[in-house]
Design a protein that fits this description.
The structure holds two protein chains of two kinds. By secondary structure, chain A is α+β, with helices and mostly antiparallel strands. Chain A contains six helices and 13 strands. Helices cover 26% and strands 27% of the residues of chain A. The longest helix of chain B is centred in the N-terminal third of the chain and has 10 residues. The chains are: A alpha+beta, B mainly beta.
Chain lengths: 233, 288
């Protein structure tokens, strides 16, 4: 059986970076390998590694060249074995996210219905049924790239992004879903909003959603939305 | 040690922000590296007022703020050349330690040469620490200082007076690069064009990135790149063939091909470019 979990290349990314590529596919198992290596690197090269940027099927490492050379670090990475690392992996957390689909909160629901040929009840039920894997955070601090959406909900991004998407907005783009952690311009199709804060500065672990976690959405009404919002969860 | 604010913003200028160290280690959460755009000028400003290199200070862009000082302070201004004026008529020299009296108004004005200047104030800045840095976390266009904003700095007393040389701000610069992760996917014609074109900085320029006007030959159909991590200084090629140089507040992941990587030392040069300036890329070592 072909091993999809071993990196296919380890190359320099400028003078202080390394890029590790896995087979270029969007797959939770490949992504799990990326995240496992990211943990490994942070643990075993504490002095040398400044930052890691795990993505769907690649890992960028920023390192201090005065502490370690590219070849040393590459050698260390080549000795990494997914099978070993995966044993140490903690079970991923499933986070339940309340979402309100009121029209005010989901300005693009009509668009999504038009594109998919579904009515909003079907869009909601298809959306809520899935458990979504968080592949990576990017675009904004705490913005989760999650997948996969059921094929019937596949919608293109907006050609012209809107200037202002409200924080908490839940959006669709292609086979992915995401949540805006702050007000921002955006091109995803917004179908609802969560009252939860994705970034909580007062907590020791301030990001609610992390790569490798899973998300399930559940529906709430506008009253519960306001209650949760007030509590500042 | 006196309490209370040290300064108030009377006019914010174009984009005046507090910067200190980069937020290293948080990129896996989608947090940009951040930090001062011209690291060397920021460090020098801090040195001139007796602060540690990565002490918080103000970064000022193109049109500077007008500031009212509520205490006696020791300041220094470095980076792009402005002609700051105190109390309407007194020129304030850049690139040296300067004492400012309580009650003074400092107008930084419009930039003469370069793009960004740094205003350091000697003492301990009372700023909120957000993931190891004082800068804004969500760096949207509204994250600059506003009229009425206060800054709190506790002075620490005597500062030795120092002076440094002025920088130079040429209209045309050479920027050194190493090959980027997707360098090999570009044709010889594209690579040759990349290293021989004199690229003009376009007006699409901010702390996230700098788009260049000219294009290298473009891919007929842009190949897919599944979103991958980005380091500051990365040069992407857009579907149009135009290069974009990603800077301090750039998104941490992206899907355009990364042709080259600006070396760390030349990022400061980029921080001082304005639209219309020209860039040529050079590769000291094509071995990466």
């Amino acid at each position: 059986m072909k091993d999809n979990f071993a990196p296919i290349s380890i190359s320099p990314y400028g003078n202080q970076g390394i890029l590790i590529n896995w087979p270029q596919i969007i797959d939770p198992k490949v992504n799990a390998a990326v995240l496992a290596m990211s943990s490994f690197v942070k643990q075993h090269y504490k002095e040398a590694v400044l930052s890691t940027i795990p993505a769907y099927c690649s890992l960028v490492i920023q390192y201090d060249p005065s502490v370690i050379s590219f070849s040393e670090l590459k050698q260390g990475l080549q000795s990494w074995r997914y099978e070993e690392a995966i044993k140490e992996k903690k079970n991923s957390t499933i986070i339940k996210i309340p979402v309100c689909f009121d029209l005010d909160f989901g300005p693009d629901m009509r668009l999504v219905c038009d594109h998919t040929g579904l009515n909003s009840a079907d869009v909601k039920s298809l959306f809520l049924k899935e458990t979504y894997h968080i592949y990576m955070l990017g675009f904004l601090p705490g913005f989760p790239y999650m997948g996969r959406l059921p094929e019937r909900l596949d919608c293109p991004r907006k050609i012209v992004p809107v200037k202002h998407v409200v924080a908490g907005s839940v959006g669709l783009a292609g086979r992915q879903t995401g949540i805006y952690p702050s007000d921002a311009p955006g091109g995803w199709q917004i179908i609802g909003r969560t009252p939860l804060r994705l970034f909580r500065r007062e907590k020791p672990s301030p990001f609610l959603l992390q790569p490798g976690d899973s998300v399930q959405f559940y529906e709430i009404d506008a009253i519960e939305f306001d209650q949760v919002k007030k509590e500042g969860l | 040690m006196k309490k209370g604010p040290c300064l108030q913003i009377l006019k914010p200028g174009l984009q005046t922000i507090i910067v200190d160290r980069r937020r290293i280690g948080y990129q896996e959460f989608g947090v940009p590296f951040g930090g001062p755009m011209d690291w060397k000028s920021a460090c020098t400003a801090n040195w001139l007022v007796g602060n540690d290199a990565e002490n918080p200070l103000l970064e000022v862009t193109l049109l500077g703020p007008e500031i009212h000082f509520l205490k006696d302070v020791i300041i220094a201004l470095t980076g792009a050349e402005f002609m700051p004026v105190l109390n309407g008529n007194q020129p304030v020299p850049m690139n040296r330690t300067v004492a400012i009296k309580k009650g003074s108004n400092l107008a930084i004005g419009s930039v003469k040469l370069g793009c960004r200047a740094y205003l350091a104030i000697g003492g301990k800045w009372e700023v909120s620490d957000l993931l190891g840095s004082a800068g804004s976390l969500f760096t949207g266009s509204n994250s600059g200082m506003k009229k009425g904003d206060l800054v709190f700095v506790r002075d620490r007393g005597f500062v030795e007076e120092k002076i440094v040389a002025f920088g130079s701000f040429p209209d045309e610069v050479s920027v050194r690069v190493a090959r980027g992760p997707e360098f090999d996917r570009f044709s010889k014609a594209m690579i040759d064009s990349f290293f021989t074109t004199s690229f003009h900085v376009s007006p699409l320029l901010n702390r996230m990135g700098m788009r260049l006007e000219q294009a290298i030959p473009a891919f007929k159909t842009y190949p897919q790149l599944i979103s991958s991590g980005i380091l500051p200084g990365t040069i992407q090629i857009l579907p149009s063939g135009q290069p974009v140089i990603l800077l301090a507040d750039a998104q941490t992941t992206g899907g355009y091909y990364r042709i080259a990587q600006v070396i760390e030392e030349d990022l400061d040069t980029l921080a001082q470019l304005i639209p219309g300036n020209k860039i040529t890329f050079i590769a000291p070592s094509l071995n990466g």
